[in-house]
User: Which sequence fits this backbone?
């Protein structure tokens, strides 16, 4: 990944915060037939990512493979009209702001039913937390759950290293960054508000 120094993000709290807030990952595994690309939610537990795939998924046969998990945070188009410096010099162009984390590690495939059940409980507890009456795995018939456990494979990735890139206008003066935050807030589409909040948090961290 092209990573100019001013966009590099190495703080654990920032990298882990992005992963936890945006757990739907793109998982890349190089192989003899090319790069296997899969998309799945990965739950971070300490320095480990955990998830599951269908038993027939190509990942289930790739135990020990080197992998990269891509996590995408908020992103959005930045108009040069938002920069005060554009009004002064005209020497500004559009760009795109975004935050991503690339997690490198090795794939471990797990088929132990107890491990898988604990994972399913953890996943549903996490993603059902905002429901008024959260669903539990135990709500499903036991024989149905047992059948499903036999049809999936668990995957685990111990995090070896993370490359974080938070491209948030750090290469611009403070007035331009403030203009981008205001512009995103006015537009308010897609990830705009989340991106503005991330930029604001970055400003406060460096204040």
Assistant:
């Amino acid at each position: 990944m092209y990573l100019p120094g001013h966009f590099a993000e190495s703080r654990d709290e920032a990298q882990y915060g992005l992963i936890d807030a945006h757990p739907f990952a793109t998982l890349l595994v190089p192989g003899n037939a090319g790069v296997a690309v899969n998309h799945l939610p990965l739950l971070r537990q300490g320095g480990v990512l955990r998830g599951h795939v269908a038993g027939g998924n190509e990942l289930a046969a790739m135990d020990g493979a080197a992998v990269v998990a891509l996590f995408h945070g908020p992103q959005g188009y930045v108009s040069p009209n938002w920069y005060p410096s554009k009004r002064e010099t005209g020497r500004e162009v559009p760009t795109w702001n975004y935050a991503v984390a690339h997690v490198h590690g090795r794939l471990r495939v797990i088929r132990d039913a107890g491990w898988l059940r604990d994972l399913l409980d953890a996943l549903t507890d996490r993603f059902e937390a905002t429901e008024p009456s959260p669903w539990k795995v135990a709500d499903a018939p036991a024989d149905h759950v047992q059948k499903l456990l036999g049809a999936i494979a668990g995957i685990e990735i111990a995090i070896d290293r993370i490359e974080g890139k938070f491209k948030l206008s750090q290469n611009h003066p403070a007035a331009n960054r403030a203009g981008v935050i205001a512009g995103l807030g006015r537009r308010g589409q897609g990830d705009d508000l989340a991106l503005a909040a991330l930029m604001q948090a970055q400003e406060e961290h460096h204040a």
